[in-house]
Write a structure and sequence with these properties.
The structure is a homodimer.
Chain A lengths: L18 E6 L5 E7 L2 E8 L2 E11 L4 E3 L6 E6 L3 H7 L8 E6 L3 E2 L4 E2 L9 E3 L1 E7 L8 H4 L3 E9 L1 E2 L12 H5 L5 E8 L8 E6 L2 E7 L7 H11 L7 E3 L7 E2 L5 E6 L3 E7 L2
Parallel strand pairs in A: 6-17, 8-14, 9-20
Antiparallel strand pairs in A: 1-2, 1-5, 1-14, 2-3, 3-4, 6-7, 10-13, 10-18, 11-12, 11-17, 12-14, 15-16, 15-19, 19-20
């Protein structure tokens, strides 16, 4: 939590935002609710359709936090920050460029990133903002798009970097980013988060490696939801990983990567081994 | 059904194979079962874990057939037939080259393929064999792979062809193949189908456009399941669309595309409009 100036659930002005969390108790029960201080106010029903408070609370420290949503797909963007595009000498795209990370990539807060048995090469972290879809979106306008967003979360879009260009005829984006545990996500979904003044920070073993303003996005979250909803129906719980900016780097076995945004908290995952 | 020499559920030698189907009744009830002649022997439970015959039968003509499975992902191959690779001047890959079509692409037998509202360009059919996974597969050997296959089905891997190369920096395979209704699948899952002597036929408005032997695959189904299970966990019901060969072509509004393989039947879908 030291990466950011304000704690999860707070804006810089001190105002609160809602933070959804999903958790597993020591007895293996899975639940969800709103984080309030060190307590979770449990809810029941459908997170995406008027969930109801049960009245029960449970201490955050007594449970393991899980991915706060269970996406059917993670739509992962490439070349969506001006600064990284400029560094790589790539023109800004005229439509979002993306691949799909399957649900089997999902990896919750504090869960271990596993090296694929079949791959000995470089594995890199990519700290990103994640958009969590709140209701089915198909061909929605940019103006309407914000109503289809439940909230925002943090993503580490882990990538087996040496696979991408391994075959000269076909860039293997899906394979490089599709391995089990390569979609780190969480710890919360923040409703009413304002991305326009926030910055994302990624640390590797405590050393800052990425710090960039979300306002540098080429397609902003509302544009992304609108444009991508032309390409496919986005379902409740689906996640758009909006792309990363400069500073991505290699993770060695045992390395700890922490992705943070003011108010969204910190997503921490360690490389296994 | 005129495309092929033997009806669904039969080998050329007359022997039967099991054909699974999923259906919706006129009352909206969804069920599944084994096709036997013009009847469906209903089953209950989990298709992937010892489903049980209910004893009830229902006439095939009385129901609408649905996609026979509900994949969490469709893994779609590129450059997996020697003949097409030779025609395009592409070397055989050393590992399967793939993208993911999201579950929102799914389109059942006889369902309409819809042109995306945002796209006025060429839309092409690609007749393909589909592998349906029967149990969770992670890092399985080629020898063990066949035990992870429930059966085989037919796929029309519909593609908005002009999108692929629209951005010079990033081939948009996922976007071009990821639109809703672009994953036509069915009508059955055939257990114990032997792909080694079969050929796939695609007709456009009754005219043959593709006819190629499945034995021309670069990575065969067992190799595909083994190799792809190194890249991600394949889940029960997931589908591998093994790639197409020569003869793909454009579908105009109103066109009827039928994909057939001896014993697997015919997957028919019409372009809307």
């Amino acid at each position: 939590m030291a990466n950011v100036a304000v704690p999860p659930g707070r804006y810089r002005n001190g105002k609160r935002m809602k933070l959804w969390t999903r958790f597993k108790t020591s007895h293996g029960r899975i639940g969800f609710g709103l984080l309030q201080g060190d307590q979770i106010l449990e809810h029941r029903g459908d997170l995406y359709d008027q969930p109801v408070a049960t009245g029960a609370t449970i201490a955050r420290d007594a449970v393991d936090l899980l991915c706060p949503c269970e996406p059917s797909k993670i739509v992962a963007l490439w070349n969506n920050y001006h600064a990284l595009g400029a560094k790589l000498g790539k023109a800004a795209p005229s439509h979002p460029l993306f691949l799909i990370k399957p649900a089997t990539t999902l990896n919750g807060p504090d869960a271990v990133i596993r090296r694929p048995a079949s791959y000995a090469g470089k594995i890199v972290f990519e700290g990103e903002l994640g958009i969590v879809i709140g209701k089915a979106a198909s061909n929605v306008s940019e103006e309407a798009a914000r109503d289809y967003i439940l909230g925002y979360t943090l993503v580490n879009d882990v990538t087996a970097a040496e696979i991408i260009e391994q075959d000269g005829n076909f860039a293997q984006w899906t394979r490089a980013k599709g391995f089990d545990t390569f979609g780190c996500l969480g710890p919360f979904i923040a409703e009413e988060f304002d991305w326009r003044e926030a910055e994302l920070i990624t640390t590797l073993d405590g050393t800052e490696r990425q710090r960039y303003p979300l306002a540098d996005m080429i397609f902003n979250p509302w544009q992304l939801v609108a444009r991508l909803s032309q390409d496919m129906t986005l379902l409740p719980g689906d996640v758009i990983a909006v792309g990363t900016s400069i500073g991505v780097g290699s993770m060695k076995e045992g390395a700890l990567v922490e992705v943070s945004i003011d108010g969204l908290g910190t997503l921490a995952n360690r490389m296994g081994g």
